[in-house]
Fold these 3 entries.
Entry 1:
Amino acid sequence: MKKQKSSRGQTLLEILLAFGVSILVLSAIIVVVNASLSNAQYTKNQSLANSYAAEAMSVVKQIRDSNWSNFISYVTGTTYCLDQNKATLRESDPPPLVCGQNVEIFSREVRFEHASDSCLADPACMGPSCLKGSKVAVKVLWSDSKCPSGNIFCHQEELITCLSNIYQKQSP
């Protein structure tokens, strides 16, 4: 009879152990699924940010192509904002010279560096007479739950290119 009581206690212990293992396995599955969803969202945002940066670069090229004087009037080192569905740049709001969320959850900004040494028309050319283009950097920034507190936009995609009017058809 003592054996029967012992086996009932052992069965209860086995049930509790199986229940504990089941909870651990279920918790691990939930953690993995949550991490996968978070990574998928990050990848989606990264892809969108890259698209928004390419779109902004296209707008900057249109500004260059339509009016070179207007293009070079953008001040070197100043941050400009390109809001959603806009074809014009606006100066960022001071301080801290950021554009805020101007394209859904993203912040899109453009910076110019005219007569940039990194944008020589002829890389072999040396000296002040060398023709230099304008370096244009488009940054798209965003935030998510992985960002530390106090860091508004901890993720970014950046496109940098050199633009000039060397091959641009001059109007009569």
Entry 2:
Amino acid sequence: MDQQKLPNVTLAIVLSCLGFVCCCFYGLPAVILSGISLIVLNIDKKKYIADPEKYSNYSTFKTARIISIIVMVIGVIYMAYAIYKIVQLGGIDGMMEEACKVYAEAGIEMPFCE
């Protein structure tokens, strides 16, 4: 019997890697992409459980799942940190005022700073 590969494993790895790269955008894209990856992997897990002899790349599936979970955790931690910093600075306005102070100290004029 010819063994097939689980169809969505490569997609899950790509989504997880993109999520890892997007962690620096306040964590939200990482959480979204790794969440989609985990949903897609759950579909493949059901297919594998139904007929394990049919598929050959279960180890790649496990690797993709681990990567997705790690990216999800990193994204949640970074998002929580970003929210904490925004609240600590007094919201978006406070964050902008702090940025203006830093730019003014460096001698850089920014159009949004008055």
Entry 3:
Amino acid sequence: MPPSSSKRTYDNFSMPNGNEAPSYPSPSKKSRVTSDSDSTPLWEMITGLQPLELSTILYNICSEDPSRADLVRSAYAARLAEERRRPPVNFDHISKDCWHTLNMKYKRLSASKQCDMMGDINAVLRKSIKSILEKAGPETRWETRRNALEVLRKISKSIMLCDERQIRHELMKDGCALASFADAMLELAQGMSSEERERYKDEGLYEKLVELQTECEEWSINMPGLEDVYGVFDEDSEGDDEEEEAEEEDEECQVISGSYRPAQPLPKPASPPKRSHVFSVIELD
């Protein structure tokens, strides 16, 4: 009979008083994660969250505590004020760069070589859209957004009237380039208030925007999304027309019921008293 081994394992180990050693459960993965998060500084945890997660948490906090919401409103108002204090951004140089890329940079190349450079040309056009939209958000000054919409229109027209026939053909054949500019113009138009869109029209800029449609019809060009841009501006006009029609209908109802009273002309203002002394500019100061 082989001698039994006297070597004891951890499982049959006894304490000096004869009791067995207490067994401890091995730490689970969840407890380790909790321990790690407890030791992580709060700022590091905040910066480690995704923007949407942070926004959701902040919104829930503000919903439960109105005083926290006031802090957010104050911070947002300060940011808007800072944006308005900044000088307006001018994007005309982007329009000139795009025109040079379309008409001059690859002018001496053969048609096949120009086709090879279409990737670079499209990259310049995409970069121009991105640069403009990043600096012309709804919170920026009106002058910045007005210039941004104008520059996008100019670049679109430069694409339509490109002197290099091969480059123009490549940009026109799928319509993606012009569609990208229409989408960008739509974003800017939707970011304007109805008063700002009316101001855009009053300055004669909307008429230039409509000229793109004229170019499309003249050259049989398809610019997907352009009608949507016009639709944003037309909505304001339709609202004004509906308001005028409602006022006219209301007047008609008052006439039928006999409650309508036409506005009485205002009395002529009294003539100012005749002055016996004419003041000079020095005296008025």
